[in-house]
TrEMBL record:
Residues 8-184 form the Ketoreductase domain. The lineage of its organism: Bacteria, Pseudomonadati, Pseudomonadota, Gammaproteobacteria, Pseudomonadales. Belongs to the short-chain dehydrogenases/reductases (SDR) family. The keyword Oxidoreductase applies. It holds the Pfam family adh_short. Keywords: Oxidoreductase. This is Ketoreductase domain-containing protein. CDD domains: SDR_c. SUPFAM superfamilies: NAD(P)-binding Rossmann-fold domains (SSF51735). It comes from Pseudomonas mohnii.
Length: 264
């Protein structure tokens, strides 16, 4: 599928709107051919036509519901078999409103399928394929609620904490393989996810809401700078570095032969 002067093929999930659609534009501008995946085939085809005309790249669209295992398996197999794919953007995801105690648990199960299980399966397939080729990039879209779960509902926050942890562990596993890994932790970003989850985004203070274009541009800048974790709205990188340092300082004491004195 790769064009003559292509940077390779980027597989983008959740590509029909919001963050995924902006990533598709930015990656096409960088010379990537695209495999765009989402449920809304009409929007995908419209976007593909525009991207081909503007950037001269090849764009394939694939209608898939990534809450359905059979669709995930097809995409997973494509990642394992198509050597032209060298970038995976795990972007597709949903949010949910309300308290866990009052939640529609079937809805939460679908959230977990998309935000956790699908992300894991696709990252696994990409890691195997990319490591074998000795190159490639895996970008997982998490959220700042992974760092501050008390600010949002339990299931969504937990799903994004999983994505953060998965990315950190995967990065360690892929060390020395030539594969780059990044987790992006946006704050509130102006996309359709809020309306779809029943959340009134107009009630969120305007100075907390970032436009999707600015978010993606910051995330790609972080990728270019070699960041494992990119938090687009965080002004002082030293705050994240202190967070990481505190975690590593605890590490030697997290598993010991005896309980801490305060428990005796």
């Amino acid at each position: 599928m790769t064009s003559t002067q292509s940077q390779g093929t980027a597989l983008v999930t959740g590509a029909s709107s919001g963050i995924g659609a902006v990533y598709a534009q930015r990656l096409a501008a960088r010379g990537f051919d695209l495999l765009l995946v989402a449920r809304d085939l009409q929007r995908l085809e419209e976007a593909a036509s525009q991207l081909r005309a503007k950037h001269g790249v090849q764009v394939e669209v694939l209608k898939a519901d990534l809450t359905q295992k059979e669709d995930v398996l097809k995409l997973e197999q494509r990642l394992r078999s198509d050597s032209s794919i060298n970038l995976l953007l795990n972007n597709a995801g949903v949010a949910a409103d309300g308290l866990l105690a009052n939640a529609d648990t079937d809805q939460l199960e679908r959230l977990i399928q998309l935000n956790v299980t699908t992300v894991t399966r696709l990252a696994s397939a990409a890691a195997a394929s990319f490591a074998k080729a000795g190159r490639g990039t895996i970008i997982n879209i998490a959220s700042v609620v992974a760092l501050f779960p008390e600010r949002f509902n339990a299931t969504y926050s937990a799903s994004k904490a999983y994505v953060l942890s998965l990315t950190q562990s995967l990065n360690a596993e892929l060390d020395g393989t030539g594969v780059k890994v990044q987790a992006v932790l946006p704050g509130v970003t102006r996309t359709e996810i809020w309306e779809r989850s029943g959340i009134d985004a107009t009630q969120i203070p305007a100075d907390m809401v970032m436009e999707a274009g600015e978010m993606v541009d910051a995330a790609l800048s972080g990728l270019d700078q070699g960041e494992l974790i990119t938090i687009p709205s965080l002004p002082n990188l030293s705050e994240w570095e202190s967070y990481v340092a505190a975690r590593h300082a605890m590490a030697p004491n997290l598993s010991r032969s005896q309980a801490a004195a305060r428990y005796k």
